[in-house]
């Protein structure tokens, strides 16, 4: 799989972002940066504003205040499909797949942003259109092999388990060849063994591509095990930021979210 190259530095900057729905403040003055190639986790209680934040980054929500920059581009007034073309892709908590299409067709559908031939050429499947389709299928086959999706590759999404659907959702965003991968609770609803499998997939993706990953996750063992840095939200505000060890020992984070005694170094 060929992904856009990345160099050291900041790839995503969220600057003083505020988002409200009527009288409800979902985000208040949130700022953070994600460095190229890092895994940045966002944690916090339910309703803390974590998904709202990535909805702003991906263009699903437009904040009333603040700016978001990705790879030098200002995102806040940009259409969602243009943000995807810049290299931002996301998963959903409950997956966003086409239930009555096969796994292969779901992954191919994500390749539409790279389709260059016209409808007529693609429909008759000859010449340039046929060669382009072959290239997309080859790329999707690589993803299927990478994520070990061969057992379900020709199944309808509606006929596979939720655990398989989570893997297909991950494959769908990989088909977009992103520079920034937004993972919204990728292990929610999974069994212990499925969680281990998903974590291995995320780490394999990171190792193989050097991709920047923004991770929302409630399982603190996963967060502490794979994240380079952690940002903590509570009631729409950032209350802490640092390494997993620093955050896990922050009294404010413990009071708001972790609910345990600080870790004492031996």
Explain what this protein looks like in three dimensions.
By secondary structure, the protein is of the alpha/beta class. The protein folds into two domains: 177 residues, 3-Layer(aba) Sandwich (Rossmann fold); 73 residues, no CATH class. Helix content is 38%, strand content 23%. The chain contains ten helices and ten strands. The protein has a six-stranded mixed beta sheet, with helices on both faces. It is globular. The termini are far apart.
In short:
With 266 residues, this protein is α/β, with parallel strands linked by helices. It has two domains: 1-87 and 177-266, P-loop containing nucleotide triphosphate hydrolases (Rossmann fold, 3-Layer(aba) Sandwich), CATH 3.40.50.300; 97-169, no CATH class.
Keywords:
alpha/beta; 10 strands; 266 residues; 4-stranded antiparallel β-sheet; disordered N terminus; 2 domains; 6-stranded mixed β-sheet; Rossmann fold
Helix and strand arrangement:
Elements: E1 10-21, E2 24-35, E3 39-43, H1 50-58, E4 65-70, E5 73-74, H2 80-86, E6 88-90, H3 103-109, H4 119-124, H5 127-146, H6 162-174, E7 180-184, H7 192-209, E8 212-216, H8 220-226, E9 229-234, E10 237-242, H9 244-248, H10 251-258
Parallel strand pairs: 3-8, 3-9, 6-7, 7-8
Antiparallel strand pairs: 1-2, 1-4, 4-5, 9-10
Helix pairs in contact: 3-6
